[in-house]
Write a structure and sequence with these properties.
The protein has about 240 residues and is mainly beta. It contains two helices and 17 strands. It is about 5% helix and about 35% strand.
């Protein structure tokens, strides 16, 4: 994220395909450059971003990436991103419709069909795929930070469609997809066992930061809430 060409911060996002086309899903505080709770600027410079630079996969070049800029505001000053249809600015995730997509290959998540319904409850292992401190896992691949579900996923934490994870996450991972990754077999919701012939993933939601600076407890906005946002973006 930058303002007038000056870098302010880095973060993480992922692609979804909405009814109106591809969108970047990331945290609201990434695009506003402000804390969700107080509205104060996150950058010590006091600046807030007007542009987001996204590193995409290149079409026709395996392993190749392309950096594309997207404006965060329309010429009339209106925000370019879309917020949840009912939660609005209280939800710390948004979808930015992409306009600069030529020569890009999209690998997208589908929050409305998140994957096999194997059981994910307290103490289940989960992964946060992002870029702590802007670090990649080689090339432009994400770093897999691993942790555990720390609250009941079927119960809303703090009265919002969120749950907690216990994971050592840091700056730069805001906006990361949170997934459950399994191989071999897993217990199904409601009983029974599912056997996989290849590794399977289940999209659980979007990571939006720790409950406070002293804790390793992080907040995840649930897949169903992300799906509601994606479905609301119509042509």
């Amino acid at each position: 994220m930058s303002v007038n060409g000056t870098l302010l911060a880095s973060g993480t996002g992922f692609i979804c395909i909405s009814p109106s086309g591809p969108v970047l899903v990331t945290n609201r505080h990434n695009v506003t450059g402000r804390r969700q709770d107080t509205g104060q600027p996150l950058s010590p410079t006091g600046g807030v971003p007007d542009t987001i630079s996204i590193r995409h996969n290149s079409l026709g070049r395996t392993g190749g990436t392309t950096l594309r800029n997207e404006p965060l505001f329309a010429p009339d000053g209106q925000a370019a991103w879309k917020e949840h249809p009912t939660l609005g600015a209280t939800a710390d995730f948004v979808a930015l419709p992409l306009t600069n997509t030529g020569g890009i290959r999209f690998f997208s998540y589908r929050p409305s069909t998140p994957g096999p319904r194997f059981k994910v409850g307290p103490t289940a292992i989960v992964s946060v795929l992002g870029f702590p401190f802007g670090i990649s896992g080689g090339g432009s691949l994400a770093v897999w930070a691993t942790g555990f579900v720390a609250s009941e996923p079927d119960v809303d934490y703090d009265g919002k469609p969120t749950f907690l994870i216990d994971c050592r996450t840091r700056q730069g991972q805001s906006g990361s997809p949170v997934i459950a990754y399994r191989h071999g077999s897993a217990d199904l919701e409601g009983g029974g066992i599912i056997v996989f012939d290849r590794p399977a993933t289940r999209f659980l939601g979007i990571y939006s930061g720790r409950v406070n600076g002293e804790a390793d407890l992080g907040i995840v906005w649930k897949a169903r809430a992300v799906a509601e946002l994606i479905a609301s973006i119509t042509p």
